[in-house]
Structure formats: structure tokens, C-alpha cells
Amino acid sequence: MRSYTPPALQIMRTVLIADDESSMRLLVHATIESDEYAVVEASDGAEAWALIQKHRPSLVLLDVQMPGRTGLEVLRSVKADPELAATRVILLTSKAQEGDIEEGLIAGADFYLTKPFSPLDLLTRVEEALQL
Question: CATH number, domain at 31?
Fold first, then answer.
């Protein structure tokens, strides 16, 4: 049985979407948008890292290949910071080789989704990551 928390008592979780493609940010935002999440967006790795430090999101959705700092560099910075280490991270990338996936998971990603991914898969992974 699920418990019910009145909307006024719910604490919104912050989710950061970091991708250099605006169309991908729009798709991900539209997919995960809900009354439960405050969504913040970054268009490159440096902006993502700055927003992570500022907002302390519960979940970060990171593109691996971004200008400036890559998603893997941002992920490693998150996991190396004791105050951020518990942050959940999902990597979203077109890099689908077994070595790429292994590198992302070893770096600390909770999930690794390859593009193109289904919106349902994304939503499922977001919900799983936030329940861990």
C-alpha cells in the first residue's frame, strides 16, 4: 500500500538535465516533468557542474559528450565530493560500446542509457534512481 502525502507537505526533488543538444534537453524535460521534480537544465559540462554545486540535485541526467567538461568528468567530480557523492546519476549517451558503458558504471553512474532511448525507459530509470 502506498502512503499519501498531501501536495503541500511534499518536498520537491531537483533533477538536473545536462546535454549540449537543446532538443534532447526538451525531450528529457517533457518526459520527466511532474509535480514531484523541479527540473534545472545545463547546456555544457561546466554549467552542469556549477548548477550541481548550487542546487544539490537528487538526480543528474548527464550526456557523456559535452563541450568543456564531459559528462564523465562531471560524474567523477560529483562522486569525489563527499557532500555530493550520494547524488544519483544517469548517463545519457550515443556511446554504446561495452567499454563505454563499463567506464560510465565504474565512474559511478547509477544507470547508463544509450540514445536513442524510449521515454518509458527513461522515466523508469529516473523513478528507480530516486527510490534507491
Answer: 3.40.50.2300
Model confidence at 34: pLDDT above 50:
yes
Q: Tell whether the torsion through CA atoms of 81, 87, 90 and 92 is positive or negative.
A: negative
Cis preceding linkage at 7, omega within 30: no
Give residue 121's identity as a one-letter amino acid code.
Answer: D
Strand 13-18: give its sheet, edge to edge. 37-42, 13-18, 59-63, 88-93, 111-114
Taking residue 1's Cβ as centre, other Cβ atoms within 10 Å add up to 3
Give per-residue pLDDT as tens, 57-99: 999 999 999 998 999 999 999 999 999 999 999 999 887 788 8
Tens digit of each residue's pLDDT (9 = 90 or more) over 14-24: 999 999 999 99
> In what helix (H) or strand (E) does residue 102 lie, and over which residues does it extend?
helix 98-107
Among 43, 39, 46, 49, residue whose Cα is nearest residue 16: 39
Structural domain containing residue 99: 11-131
